[in-house]
Amino acid sequence: MAHSAHLTHTARLRALQAYLDARRLDALVVSAPVNIAYLSGFAGSAGLLLVTREGLFLLVDGRYDVAARESLVAGRLGPVTVERVDGRYDQALASVIAREGVRHVGLEAGNVTVATLSAWRRAATGVEWEPTERVVEGQRLIKDAAEIETFRRAAKTLDYMASRLGTIVARGQTEQAVASGIDAALVDAGFQRPAFSTIVASGPNSALPHARPTSRRLEAGDLVVLDFGGVLDGYCVDLTRMAAVGSPTASAMALYEGVREANASAVRAVRPGVPASDIDRAARAVLEAKNLGEAFRHATGHGLGLEVHEAPRLARPDSEPQERLEEGMVFTIEPGAYVEGIGGVRLEDDVLVTPGGCEVLTKAPHDLLRV
């Protein structure tokens, strides 16, 4: 397994080196912790990764030096050279840059502050710094074989967790108590931790798309939104299912059935080459036909990976530049409808783009949980 991890990170780093060659950059300083983890396997809270055309240098301070070297020997890191930082990071980075003789160096513009860049310029004189945008994020957009295997295991674990909702959600409990129960069950199922703050929204609160759990108790007639996810081997999965306390009204059931149909329509629209906005359009068209277009107040989905919200974003074409779907992308499909006086419904699944369409990774039934 460690050998496989080493090979995976080697392939990712080699792809980045090819980018450097194409852009005629001597090196790139990777400073976003999530990107460092993706490329090297190192997941500490502080560090820098200097990627040159020939070498890979992981700069870490005394808190992580020994652990990083042990991980390297064990094959859990990519082919990096560990450089211990005994003083300031800017000076250590300048020292490695000077030793390696690189002069044209890229930086992650979205993650480097003006103050940090100023410090780098003072420490590394004679270096030409070039801002880059979302270089590693572009690599992360297409999942490799190791990531896809992790997603499948994580989705299966999340499905198991969803099968236990009937033992967690109960009439009379507070939203906060249900959320705490879900969080505990996620860890018990095998996740490292919840991927985000679990959402439990009942009754009038369910009509708020991103409500947070409160002290409100679940009452007869409530619709209950249950939105939760977990982190497995660093990767995030995300699921939303619905519960009803007692018998839902006809209006609530119509809302639920509309969202369920919108979810299915969006899944059917997924295939390589189509704009991400087409998936949003497929879901939105179903709800608009049922006079629920105004009740759908958010995008249809978002990418998943080392972060719970990544590219691509499945939204209206006029909201932001749209990416075309490619094989290997993983994202959520989560249409919703929220109506004051009735409540809200959201049904969310995680999907993988395949050559002929998509694989729905989360297979938990969409059936309304009656409590």
Tell me what you see in this structure:
It is a single chain. The chain has 371 residues and is of the alpha+beta class. Helix content is 37%, strand content 24%. It has ten helices and 18 strands. The strands form five sheets. It has a six-stranded mixed beta sheet with strand order 4-3-2-1-5-6, sandwiched between helices. The radius of gyration is 23 Å and the shape is elongated. The model has no long low-confidence stretch (mean pLDDT 95).
Q: What descriptors fit this protein?
A:
Creatine Amidinohydrolase, Chain A, domain 1, 2 domains, Creatine Amidinohydrolase, 371 residues, six-stranded mixed sheet, 10 helices, five-stranded mixed sheet, alpha+beta, elongated
CATH superfamily of the largest domain: Creatinase/methionine aminopeptidase superfamily
Cα-based radius of gyration, to the nearest Å: 23 Å
Strand content range: 15-25%
CATH fold label of the largest domain? Creatine Amidinohydrolase
Number of strands: 18
> Major sheet, described briefly?
6 strands, mixed
Sequence-ordered SSE layout with sheet pairings:
Blueprint: H1 2-23, E1 27-30, H2 33-40, E2 48-52, E3 56-61, H3 65-73, E4 81-85, H4 89-100, E5 104-108, H5 114-123, E6 128-132, H6 135-141, H7 145-163, H8 175-189, E7 193-194, E8 199-202, E9 223-232, E10 235-244, H9 250-269, H10 276-289, E11 301-303, E12 310-314, E13 330-333, E14 336-339, E15 343-346, E16 349-354, E17 357-360, E18 369-370
